[in-house]
Structure formats: C-alpha cells, structure tokens
Amino acid sequence: MGSARTEDASSDGVRRAVADFFELDEHDTDVRTEALAGLTTFLTMSYIIVVNPAILAGIEGVKPGILLDGFAPGQVQQMLAIVTILAAATGTFVMAVYANRPFAQVPGMGLNAFFAFTVVGALGVPWQTALAAVVAEGVLFLVLTVTGVRTYVVRAFPEPVKFAVGTGIGLFLAIIGLQAMGVVVDDGTTLVALGDLTNPVALVSVLGLFLTFGLYARGVRGAVVVGILATAVLGWAATAAGLAAPDAGLVTGTRTLSLSVPAVGAFDLLVPATGTTATYDISPLAGAFTAGLAGVDVPTFLLVVFMLFFVDFFNTAGAVTGVSQVAGFLNEDGNLPEVEKPLFADAVATTVGGMLGTSTVTTYIESASGVEAGGRTGLTALFVTLFLLVAVVFVPVVSLIPVYASHIAVVVVGVLMLQNVADIRWDDLSHVVPAGLTIVVMPFTYSIAYGIAAGIVSYPLVKLAAGERGDVRTGHWALALAFVAYFLVATGGVLGA
C-alpha cells in the first residue's frame, strides 16, 4: 500500500511539474488535450517524411537534386527521410521547451522545390553549396533574431495584413488539401477545375471530409484524427473488397503533386506514400555543406542566400501569425507576445537542417490542425517531437497513411481558419485593399510570402492615396521597397540566367 501511494504521489508530482513548466492551467488545457493535439499535427504533417525526400533527391537525367555517388535515388530518399525527421524534431523540440508554443517545424514545401529545381537545377549550383547557403541563411536568422531585428520587421507588418494572414493561409491550405484529395485538379483553360468525383481517391476523400466535418460539428474530441484514420481504413477496405482496382491509389496514396514555386514554374512529381525503408547511415549527407564552401561563386551564393532568406522569413512570419490568430495568441495590435522565441526556434531548425542535409526548415501551417484540436502550449510541440522520433523507427508504417487521408485535416483547418476574416476592418478601404490582396494572392500564387508581399506593398500606397499619410511608418515603406526589389529579382530572369 505504501509503495502504491508513493508511486501515485510521484506520478502526481511529475504531472504537476509538466503542467507548471508548460503553463497548462494558464492556457486552460491539460496533458490529454495537448497529446491529442500533438498527434493531430503529426498525422497532418507526416506526409513531409515522404514528400520532402522525393523532391530533394535527384535522378540522373530526369530531375535535379541531391545525387550521391554509389547510391541509388531510392537510397538517397531513405537517408533524406531520416534527415527530415531529425531536423523537424530538433526545431520542434526547441519550439516546445524554449518558445512554449504549439508550432511544428519541418522542411518547407516550396522551399525544398526551390532548392532542387532552381538552385541546383536552373542555377547549376552543387547541392553541397546549396546546403551551405541554407546554413548561412539559418545563421543570419539567428543573428537577426538575437539582435531583435527580425522581431522588429515582423511587428512592422501593417495591421490589416496581420489580420488577413490567417484567412489567406486558410484558403491556401484548402486548395492544397483539395488538390491532394483529387477534388481540385489542373485545367489548361481555367487553371483549376473540379476533379472526377467518381474517382476512388476523390470519392473516399469526400466521404472522409464530410465525416470529419460532422464529427467536428458534434464536438467530438479528436475529430480530425478520427477522420484521417477512418478515411485511410475506408480506402484500404474498398480496395480489399474489390470495389476499387489495386492501382487506384487508395492503398498507396500515390498522386501527382503539382506545385508552382518562385522562378521554377509548374512541375509534376510522382509521390508514393509507401515503400520507404529507413537507411540510418546519413553520414554522406550530414556535414556535406562544408564541402560546398570550397570554390564557391560568391555572387551566385549570396543571391541564393538572399532568396532563401526572403521566402523563409515571410513564410515563417505568415505561418506564426496565422496559427497564432487561430489560437488566440495575438494581442489587440495583432502582435504575438515574445515572437522572438518561435523565430529563434525556426532559425535553429534551419541551421541544423542544413548541416544534416535538408533544405530550409520552417514553422508549418499545418500546426493549425493541432491548435484546432485544442493545443495551446509547447507540450503539443513536445508530443509532435516524440512522434517524430518514433517515426524514425517506423518510417514505412508512418507513410502508410495515404496523402489524401492526411490532407482531410488540411481542408478542415483551412475552412475553419476562414473565421479569422471577422477581425479585419471591412468598413475601412485602406484596410480592405491590403487585407483583400493578402487573402486572394496567397492561394492563387501558391505562396504565403507572395500574399504577404501584396498586402505590404499596397498598404502605404493606399494610405497615401487616402490622405492618411500619418498612419504609414518608415518600416512600412522599407518593407514595401524590399518586396519590390525581391520581385524584380525573382521574376526578372535573374535566377534563370
């Protein structure tokens, strides 16, 4: 009896210590809720374990990327899967214990394509040098974060842009998810169109989506996780029962991923959701950035660092602001208190990721799925870290969740984030224009950074035209001019020269 009481007291002491460290009571949450939120975020973002290696790994004569002598592309992808997990776990752990925020960190989509297709492909930069640029960008971020410069820039965002980011990201998430589910497809005339809803993947996805919405509307805890798992099981069952052909994509989740990234254009990449086995020796990748510093072409290197820096900076700022808006973290001015802490975690993650052998790591907008599930503290991020570390052992099992099933959470969260539009002052035209452009441009250009750019550039111009010059600070003009310079570089043929 005495031993049992001692164990109970010890267990209660641990729970109390955890609650105090992560300030669970202050955020009106508990360990169970944070664990469920962590699982939700992990399931939503787990596709990156397969997709990031598929984008970064090169195939001789087929696609640019990381090529290793003596290793087949599949083996390189296996190494990159482990590196992806380790880089994500490092950044997310720092986010958990230092920033105490429920944000996950993983290699960013779009940034990985920019790395492989533009830097290594179009510019012909060796992949080792490209990794060195990622490390340089991360170190630059660390310096700017520690000195407070990065925080100043984020706070210099115009108010309407801050409050529009959440809604813009919501639309961005929705189109990403619907595309993965086969509901939205490419169209040569209208750019996008409704997919064939009789297609097995699309049909199962739609059923799973409405199931998830129904569970969420009824207030079922863990509705998103239940929806993801139920959809995956439904797909497997339909194939096993002979209702769909084995090659329909329900089991593997194979799909064609179409992305538009800065200065790359559209590309199609076959992404299998299964078949990845772990290769734990990552020594050919880890530390390879040091070799990339030898004989580097300085002007090209600085240009690459600048482009990575710019896109990563505003992607991260947008994701942090948007997810924080969903969580209710923003103050009345639209600022996130102690924003330098999550920015620091992001900088550490990018630096470590480049050293290990992956492209830029950033705060993931899919973190909003965990926030919607109730996650409010770094304990959510700590659970994500634990799930990531477990995934190192079970990489093939993790990838059994089909892409279409995991992206149901992306659509659900995207729709729910549209509620943030209520925070915008729609009765003030000088707020409507920058906020509206931020929301519209983000999904249509497939870029958080471009959406933020449209809002930031338009804000001082509209304020000036409205005769409200006093509302515009020097920082607003500086950011606007910086984005104009960025677009001249990004779209003016410099990168493709």
Automatic annotation (TrEMBL):
Annotated membrane topology: Multi-pass membrane protein
Membrane-spanning ranges: 36-59, 79-99, 106-125, 131-153, 165-185, 197-216, 223-245, 285-311, 377-398, 404-422, 434-457, 477-496
Pfam families: Xan_ur_permease
An example Gene Ontology molecular-function term: purine nucleobase transmembrane transporter activity
Cellular location(s): Cell membrane
InterPro entries: Azg-like, Azg-like_bact_archaea, NCS2
Cellular component per GO, a single term: plasma membrane
Major location category of this protein: membrane
UniProt entry keywords in alphabetical sequence: Cell membrane, Membrane, Transmembrane, Transmembrane helix, Transport
Domain of life from the UniProt record: Archaea
Family statement: Belongs to the nucleobase:cation symporter-2 (NCS2) (TC 2.A.40) family. Azg-like subfamily.
Listed name of the protein: Putative MFS transporter, AGZA family, xanthine/uracil permease
Organism name: Halogeometricum limi
